[in-house]
Amino acid sequence: MTAAVLSLGSNLGDRVAHLRDAVDGLGDSLLTVSGVYETEPWGDTDQPRYLNAVALVIRPDAPAEHWLRVARDLEARAGRERDLERRFGPRTLDVDVIDVRTDDGAPVVSDDPGLTLPHPRAHLRAFVLRPWLDIQPYAELPGHGKLFDLVRTAPVADDLAGLRARDDISLET
Ligand SMILES: Nc1ncnc2c1ncn2[C@@H]1O[C@H](COP(=O)(O)OP(=O)(O)OP(=O)(O)O)[C@@H](O)[C@H]1O
Ligand SMILES: Nc1nc2c(c(=O)[nH]1)N=C(CO)CN2
Protein backbone atom coordinates (compact mmCIF):
# COMPACT_ATOMS: atom_id res chain seq x y z
CA MET A 1 0.00 0.00 0.00
CA THR A 2 1.12 3.57 -0.55
CA ALA A 3 -0.57 6.77 0.47
CA ALA A 4 0.24 10.01 -1.31
CA VAL A 5 -0.34 13.72 -0.98
CA LEU A 6 -1.10 15.25 -4.37
CA SER A 7 -1.12 18.98 -5.06
CA LEU A 8 -3.72 20.21 -7.57
CA GLY A 9 -3.56 23.59 -9.30
CA SER A 10 -5.26 25.33 -12.18
CA ASN A 11 -5.02 28.83 -13.64
CA LEU A 12 -6.34 28.45 -17.20
CA GLY A 13 -9.88 27.85 -18.48
CA ASP A 14 -12.59 26.71 -16.09
CA ARG A 15 -10.39 26.32 -13.04
CA VAL A 16 -13.07 24.84 -10.80
CA ALA A 17 -14.07 22.28 -13.43
CA HIS A 18 -10.43 21.24 -13.90
CA LEU A 19 -10.01 20.69 -10.17
CA ARG A 20 -13.34 18.84 -9.88
CA ASP A 21 -12.49 16.59 -12.84
CA ALA A 22 -9.14 15.80 -11.25
CA VAL A 23 -10.76 14.87 -7.93
CA ASP A 24 -13.35 12.73 -9.75
CA GLY A 25 -10.54 11.07 -11.69
CA LEU A 26 -8.93 9.93 -8.44
CA GLY A 27 -11.94 7.63 -7.97
CA ASP A 28 -11.77 5.11 -5.14
CA SER A 29 -8.21 6.16 -4.28
CA LEU A 30 -9.41 9.45 -2.84
CA LEU A 31 -9.41 9.57 0.95
CA THR A 32 -9.99 13.27 1.41
CA VAL A 33 -9.49 16.64 -0.23
CA SER A 34 -8.67 20.05 1.24
CA GLY A 35 -10.44 23.31 0.83
CA VAL A 36 -9.77 25.41 -2.27
CA TYR A 37 -7.45 28.43 -2.14
CA GLU A 38 -7.04 31.29 -4.58
CA THR A 39 -3.28 31.85 -4.77
CA GLU A 40 -0.81 34.27 -6.30
CA PRO A 41 1.31 32.67 -9.04
CA TRP A 42 4.58 31.34 -7.67
CA GLY A 43 7.83 31.25 -9.64
CA ASP A 44 6.52 33.14 -12.68
CA THR A 45 4.39 36.08 -11.63
CA ASP A 46 3.12 37.16 -15.06
CA GLN A 47 0.11 34.83 -15.21
CA PRO A 48 -3.40 34.56 -13.73
CA ARG A 49 -4.03 33.53 -10.14
CA TYR A 50 -4.37 29.82 -9.41
CA LEU A 51 -6.92 27.76 -7.58
CA ASN A 52 -5.09 25.20 -5.47
CA ALA A 53 -6.04 22.24 -3.32
CA VAL A 54 -4.42 19.10 -1.94
CA ALA A 55 -5.75 15.52 -2.03
CA LEU A 56 -4.83 12.53 0.10
CA VAL A 57 -4.98 9.26 -1.84
CA ILE A 58 -4.33 5.65 -0.96
CA ARG A 59 -4.08 2.41 -2.90
CA PRO A 60 -3.09 -1.18 -2.10
CA ASP A 61 0.04 -2.46 -3.88
CA ALA A 62 0.75 0.83 -5.66
CA PRO A 63 4.41 1.79 -6.02
CA ALA A 64 5.28 5.49 -5.76
CA GLU A 65 5.53 5.70 -9.57
CA HIS A 66 1.83 4.89 -9.77
CA TRP A 67 1.05 8.34 -8.38
CA LEU A 68 3.18 10.07 -11.01
CA ARG A 69 1.28 8.19 -13.72
CA VAL A 70 -2.00 9.24 -12.12
CA ALA A 71 -0.80 12.86 -12.03
CA ARG A 72 0.26 12.83 -15.69
CA ASP A 73 -3.01 11.15 -16.79
CA LEU A 74 -5.11 13.75 -15.01
CA GLU A 75 -3.08 16.59 -16.56
CA ALA A 76 -3.42 15.05 -20.03
CA ARG A 77 -7.19 14.71 -19.58
CA ALA A 78 -7.34 18.43 -18.74
CA GLY A 79 -5.58 19.16 -22.04
CA ARG A 80 -2.45 20.47 -20.38
CA GLU A 81 0.09 21.77 -22.85
CA ARG A 82 3.72 22.14 -21.80
CA ASP A 83 5.44 25.42 -22.66
CA LEU A 84 9.12 24.53 -22.59
CA GLU A 85 10.01 28.23 -22.50
CA ARG A 86 8.13 28.81 -19.23
CA ARG A 87 8.97 26.30 -16.56
CA PHE A 88 6.45 27.63 -14.03
CA GLY A 89 4.03 29.02 -16.60
CA PRO A 90 0.21 28.86 -16.75
CA ARG A 91 -1.65 25.58 -17.09
CA THR A 92 -5.12 24.06 -17.13
CA LEU A 93 -4.06 21.53 -14.51
CA ASP A 94 -0.93 20.88 -12.51
CA VAL A 95 -0.76 17.73 -10.40
CA ASP A 96 2.39 17.21 -8.32
CA VAL A 97 3.28 14.26 -6.12
CA ILE A 98 4.28 15.87 -2.84
CA ASP A 99 4.84 13.03 -0.38
CA VAL A 100 4.42 9.24 -0.56
CA ARG A 101 4.24 6.86 2.41
CA THR A 102 4.49 3.09 2.58
CA ASP A 103 2.32 0.79 4.73
CA ASP A 104 4.23 1.53 7.90
CA GLY A 105 4.06 5.31 7.38
CA ALA A 106 7.69 5.58 6.26
CA PRO A 107 8.31 8.28 3.65
CA VAL A 108 9.51 7.29 0.19
CA VAL A 109 12.66 9.31 -0.51
CA SER A 110 14.02 9.59 -4.04
CA ASP A 111 16.39 11.91 -5.90
CA ASP A 112 15.41 10.50 -9.30
CA PRO A 113 14.71 13.56 -11.51
CA GLY A 114 11.76 11.63 -13.01
CA LEU A 115 10.15 11.35 -9.57
CA THR A 116 11.81 13.24 -6.74
CA LEU A 117 10.31 12.62 -3.31
CA PRO A 118 9.33 14.46 -1.35
CA HIS A 119 8.64 17.07 -4.03
CA PRO A 120 11.78 19.24 -4.07
CA ARG A 121 9.96 22.59 -3.96
CA ALA A 122 7.03 21.74 -1.68
CA HIS A 123 8.67 23.28 1.41
CA LEU A 124 8.79 26.66 -0.38
CA ARG A 125 5.15 26.72 -1.50
CA ALA A 126 2.38 28.18 0.60
CA PHE A 127 -0.06 26.99 -2.09
CA VAL A 128 0.87 23.38 -1.22
CA LEU A 129 1.44 23.59 2.54
CA ARG A 130 -1.63 25.62 3.53
CA PRO A 131 -4.22 23.33 1.89
CA TRP A 132 -2.30 20.28 3.12
CA LEU A 133 -2.57 21.64 6.67
CA ASP A 134 -6.37 21.52 6.27
CA ILE A 135 -6.40 17.73 5.97
CA GLN A 136 -3.30 16.63 7.94
CA PRO A 137 -2.53 19.30 10.53
CA TYR A 138 0.22 17.27 12.24
CA ALA A 139 1.90 16.08 9.05
CA GLU A 140 5.61 16.39 8.42
CA LEU A 141 7.31 17.12 5.13
CA PRO A 142 10.25 14.69 5.25
CA GLY A 143 13.53 16.56 5.61
CA HIS A 144 11.82 19.87 6.36
CA GLY A 145 9.74 19.44 9.49
CA LYS A 146 6.16 19.90 10.56
CA LEU A 147 3.73 21.72 8.30
CA PHE A 148 2.61 23.97 11.14
CA ASP A 149 6.21 25.15 11.60
CA LEU A 150 6.85 25.57 7.87
CA VAL A 151 3.81 27.80 7.38
CA ARG A 152 4.94 30.05 10.21
CA THR A 153 8.45 30.67 8.88
CA ALA A 154 9.90 32.39 5.81
CA PRO A 155 9.48 32.13 2.88
CA VAL A 156 6.11 30.40 3.22
CA ALA A 157 4.81 32.67 6.01
CA ASP A 158 5.40 35.72 3.77
CA ASP A 159 3.29 34.19 1.01
CA LEU A 160 0.33 33.23 3.19
CA ALA A 161 -1.19 36.70 2.85
CA GLY A 162 -1.50 36.02 -0.88
CA LEU A 163 -3.78 33.03 -0.28
CA ARG A 164 -7.53 33.40 0.00
CA ALA A 165 -9.71 30.53 1.19
CA ARG A 166 -12.49 29.96 -1.36
CA ASP A 167 -15.12 28.64 1.01
CA ASP A 168 -17.66 29.07 -1.78
CA ILE A 169 -16.04 26.16 -3.69
CA SER A 170 -16.03 22.57 -2.47
CA LEU A 171 -14.25 19.65 -4.09
CA GLU A 172 -15.77 17.10 -1.74
CA THR A 173 -17.41 14.29 -3.69
N1 LIG B 1 7.35 14.72 -7.12
C1 LIG B 1 7.11 14.97 -8.41
N2 LIG B 1 5.85 15.28 -8.81
C2 LIG B 1 5.62 15.55 -10.11
N3 LIG B 1 6.55 15.55 -11.10
C3 LIG B 1 7.81 15.25 -10.73
C4 LIG B 1 8.14 14.95 -9.39
N4 LIG B 1 9.48 14.70 -9.32
C5 LIG B 1 9.95 14.81 -10.54
N5 LIG B 1 8.97 15.15 -11.42
C6 LIG B 1 9.20 15.35 -12.84
O1 LIG B 1 9.12 16.73 -13.10
C7 LIG B 1 8.89 16.89 -14.49
C8 LIG B 1 8.19 18.20 -14.76
O2 LIG B 1 6.90 18.13 -14.22
P1 LIG B 1 5.95 19.37 -14.36
O3 LIG B 1 5.94 19.84 -15.77
O4 LIG B 1 4.62 19.01 -13.74
O5 LIG B 1 6.69 20.43 -13.46
P2 LIG B 1 6.09 21.75 -13.02
O6 LIG B 1 4.75 21.46 -12.41
O7 LIG B 1 6.14 22.73 -14.12
O8 LIG B 1 7.07 22.24 -11.88
P3 LIG B 1 7.00 21.83 -10.39
O9 LIG B 1 7.33 20.35 -10.33
O10 LIG B 1 8.01 22.69 -9.75
O11 LIG B 1 5.59 22.10 -9.91
C9 LIG B 1 8.09 15.68 -14.91
O12 LIG B 1 8.65 15.14 -16.05
C10 LIG B 1 8.19 14.71 -13.74
O13 LIG B 1 8.66 13.45 -14.16
N1 LIG C 1 0.07 29.72 -6.96
C1 LIG C 1 0.58 28.76 -7.74
N2 LIG C 1 1.70 29.02 -8.44
C2 LIG C 1 2.22 28.03 -9.22
C3 LIG C 1 1.60 26.77 -9.31
C4 LIG C 1 0.42 26.55 -8.56
O1 LIG C 1 -0.17 25.44 -8.59
N3 LIG C 1 -0.04 27.55 -7.79
N4 LIG C 1 2.13 25.80 -10.09
C5 LIG C 1 3.23 26.03 -10.77
C6 LIG C 1 3.75 24.91 -11.56
O2 LIG C 1 5.03 24.62 -11.29
C7 LIG C 1 3.93 27.32 -10.77
N5 LIG C 1 3.35 28.29 -9.93
Automatic annotation (TrEMBL):
Q: In which pathway is this protein known to take part?
A: Cofactor biosynthesis; tetrahydrofolate biosynthesis; 2-amino-4-hydroxy-6-hydroxymethyl-7,8-dihydropteridine diphosphate from 7,8-dihydroneopterin triphosphate: step 4/4
Q: Which reaction does it catalyse?
A: 6-hydroxymethyl-7,8-dihydropterin + ATP = (7,8-dihydropterin-6-yl)methyl diphosphate + AMP + H(+)
What the entry lists under PROSITE patterns is as follows: HPPK
InterPro entries on file: Hppk, Hppk_sf
Tell me its EC number(s), please.
2.7.6.3
Tell me where in this chain the 7,8-dihydro-6-hydroxymethylpterin-pyrophosphokinase domain is found: 87-98
The UniProt keywords, alphabetically, are:
ATP-binding, Folate biosynthesis, Kinase, Nucleotide-binding, Transferase
Could you mention a single GO BP entry for this protein? Answer: tetrahydrofolate biosynthetic process
Q: Name one GO molecular function term.
A: 2-amino-4-hydroxy-6-hydroxymethyldihydropteridine diphosphokinase activity
Stored CDD domains? HPPK
Report the enzyme's class at the first EC level: transferase
| Alphabetized Pfam families for the sequence | HPPK
Please report the name of this protein according to its UniProt entry.
2-amino-4-hydroxy-6-hydroxymethyldihydropteridine diphosphokinase
Provide the species name: Virgisporangium ochraceum
